[in-house]
Structure formats: C-alpha cells, structure tokens
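note to self: dont lose this again. the chain is below, predicted strucutre after it. 390 aa total, dont forget to put it in the shared folder this time
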Amino acid sequence: MTRPFRPLPALPLALACAALPALARAEETPRPLDLAASYVADTVAVADGPARGTRFVDLLRVDAAADLDQAIGWHGARAVLTVEAGTGAQPNALAGTVEGIDNAETSLNRPRLFQAYLEQGLGALGAVKLGFVDLNCDFYATEASGLLIAPPFGIGSELAASGPNGPAIFPSTAPTVSLRLTPAPDVYLLAAALNAEARVIGDPGGPAPLLREGALLIGEAGWTAGGGKLALGGWAYTRRQDDQRDTDAAGAPLRRRAWGAYALAERPLGPRLTAFVRGGISDGDTTAFSGSFQAGLLLTQALPGRPASRLSAGFHAGFIAPKYRANLADAGDSQRPVEAGWEVTGEDQLAPWLTIQPDLQFIRDTTRLPGSRDALVMTLRLTLTPPAQD
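---
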C-alpha cells in the first residue's frame, strides 16, 4: 500500500529560517556568525517498478559558522554547526532499488544535529577538524556530480554500506578528527579517524559510545591542477566486522577485516563542461557491495540567457557482493550481480531564493523473481534558499 502524497509539512519552519540571513544583516558592522538555511522539497513519482506511486521527501538544513578569530581572538579557528530535519516519506520502498533514488531520503524523520565541529587552520599547511563531521564533505567527493540526486553520486555504495550502521555521512555523523595538508601547490593529503558507529543528537539513543565498535580510518591523496581533480583513497575499520555468510564451527559469523579503496577524477572539457569518473572496491565479505562505479557530465549555463542553469547526466553501477547475493537467494530473493542506473537532471533559478530541478532516473531491476520490473523515477525538486548574508 502506497502512502498518500503529503503537502510541505516542514515549510513553515523553512520560511521562518528564511529570516535568519536578514537578521544577520541587521547590523551594519560585520558579524562573526554566518547563518544559512535551505529547504529541499522533492515530489517523487515512481512511474514503473515493483510498485507505483507518488511520495514526498523534504529536508530542512540550517548552517551556522562562527569566525572565532573575530569573535574571541582565536586566530585561524572557526566553529561549524549544522541542524537538519526531514518529514518526508520513503519513495525507494516503491522503486525497490539497492543503491537508492533520492539523496534527501532518510528512514528516520526527526530533527538532528548533523555536524558540530571545530576547525583550526594551520596557515598555508592545511587545517584540522575535530567533532561531528560529514565524511563526504572532504572524502570521495567530486563537485561535478553534486547536482545528481541518486545517492551513489555522493559517495560510493561500497563505503556507504560499510560499518556497524554506515559511516559518518547523511543522515548521521560521528566523532571525527580530520587533517588536511597541502604540502605543495595543487597537492593535498587527507587523513581522518572516525568513530565506527555513526549516531548524533536526535538519533534514538543519542551519540554512540566512543570506540565501542572501533574506528574507521580513511586517507586520500589528490592533485588539483588545471581546474580538475585526480585522487586515490583507502579506508579500513580497526575492529573486525561480521562476515556476510561464513561462520565458525559454532555457527557464529566469522570476523573479517573491512577495507576498501577508491579512485576519482574530474576534468574540465571546456569553459562550461566538466566530466567525472569514480570507482571503488571493498573486501566484499562484510558489506552488501564489493564495488561501485559512477561517471557523468555537468554543463553550466545550460540555457541561453540563464547563467544559473545547469544540466547533468550520470551513470552508476553497484556491484552486489557474492556472499550477500547468496544470502538473498537462500531467502528466495535471487538478485543479479549488478544494479545499474541512469540519471538526467537540470536546474534553473526561478528567483534569488528558489531553484527548480526536474530529474529522471532509470534503474535496472536486480531481482530475478517473476514479474520484477525496472524502475522509472521522475522527481521534481524545489530548493528554497534565503539570499546569502552580505
């Protein structure tokens, strides 16, 4: 049974947050606190797939960044706080995809503290962050894939599905210490240690105990010359995870080292066109995915006379781990080894505070069961963003 379409339930709160930048501009002198807010409203229609119907997804985000140098004289430091709230449905329950269809969808619709960290600049050398940090802000990220709505274009599925309850990415982060170094022009090095359990204030039970399930260690090295990006990364958990299938003599799951590696590249192909390609692998024993791949294009100023218009197209593939597929087959849910999806989307600014983004996705169904159907998903995204603080 599909859930009925619902109106914009968080819109009143979003409109209230629209006043934040105006309040921040009330003073003629610069303020040490920058406030920003955005409200995403997605109408998602699953036109074909295991089930059909229309569902609503929304996400309100409020960001506050304090310049501690200006506020209290703490040179090179700033504090960042992000609160999110969503009240939408779960359209992927209709589409039945493995990797997901909407990067604003969450199974737990309640306000939560998404980020809360202190960042200390190290001059030209780099910076360090300490607190609850979104891993995907720095790691496994390509700007050219940011317009696409399907979750795999944010972070590879093999990393997104790892750990006790997923790494520190949307919708829940974890205590993190992260270091960024720039040892040479156009070269960067990233390293971070994160609590293996991602839970924040607002999640049931609140933040998880520190290091109860160990830590996630991740590193990335990149080169950014010529307006592009080329990077290699790797990650591993300090505590072994349950094997998806293999057991010991007593029937308990064997414990395996969870690890993975990824590579990504994005490159301008002209003044307005940028291409990206990414791919990653994992151990395949402890997660549902043994790897993933994404590629696509981003065109800016896509419409004549519309400088804010953008157009993007992408392809993603998630390689389902053999052990995970074997477990599904034992339960009567036989799956193909790869889920593949195609997405085309465009965005334009209708007003300084409003953008519209139609989106079309086709996802090849992985189920081998009789009557299974590929998913065709149409989304209309509206994003309300108050004018930035002057």
